[in-house]
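New to this. Please check both lines:
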Amino acid sequence: MKQYFIGIEGGATKTEAVLIDDTGKVYVKLQSGSSNPWLLGFDNAAKLLKQLIDDILVQCEVNWDQIVSVGMVLSGGGHADSQLNLQQELKSFDIDTSKIFIGEDMLGPVPNGGVVIIAGTGSNCIVYNKDGSRKGAGGWGHLLGDEGSAYWIAQRAIKRVVDHTDNFSLSRHDLTRLRDAIKAYFKVEEMSQLLTFFYKNFQKDFIARFTQVIAELASNNNDEACQQLFKEAGYMLGTHLRAISSHIEKSLYDQGKLRVVAVGSVFLSWKFLKPGFMDALSNGNSIPFNKVELVRLTSSAAIGAAIWGARRQGIPLTNIDFTKCFTTLDIIDI
């Protein structure tokens, strides 16, 4: 009987699921909405995850007995109480949870250890050392953190225009294009009408997606105000990496070069992030590595989730070289 492994990677915006075998062959890849239990509720998150599993089994004509493990790496799934609550909800659907392993979404890009920075809707940075230790910075959500994320950039852009309009804090850049873009995106005539998007009908994802417009202004219109926002975001992301640098074991920066997986749509604007990112790493106390190789995933992080889940089940998928699932974004000398 052929055996298979399921991997599910869930963020604040979307969830991907794959079915692979021990060679890494992907038989199906499915996508759904957010599976963050703190946003959806644990019962609804469990329903979504079960539906993904059911859809995989049906589409691939595979039965549950052929599934060795299910690795779920989820936004909002990093704490023991979250994992226990989700396990209990999944049990209520008569699922054999002995095959299911739940962890945080940061594990997907580095199932065998390493450093990852996420800058999507939210932001986070973490190292998983080979000795089992870990150290993170960020991941506190939009009220307490998310510095450098798409939401943070969008909120900061709106705040900058509001402060300038109020004569509270004047910008040294022309904000005309940014102000017009805000009004067009949110379909408002006055800035005061934005209040409903933050205090009445708050939708974090919708606000975060405005960062795509900011990126277009920075790139296509050479808008200095928008470029400055990305530089500031880059500084915040670099500060995340600096914060964990002393906790990264030496084997991860062989010959002084540290490989960092950069995940999330914000890194599509790397050209504008880079100056701030480098400033954050160059200023302050020395860090133990002198070069950073930023890499981007070329395959779904759900594959990494499947590899991680299999390892938790005691089956290392040694035939899969996940390091080949990346492309170099940039190499930085510090």
Remarks:
- The mean pLDDT is 94.
- The first strand starts at residue 4 and ends at 10.
- The CA atoms of residues 151 and 208 lie 4 Å apart.
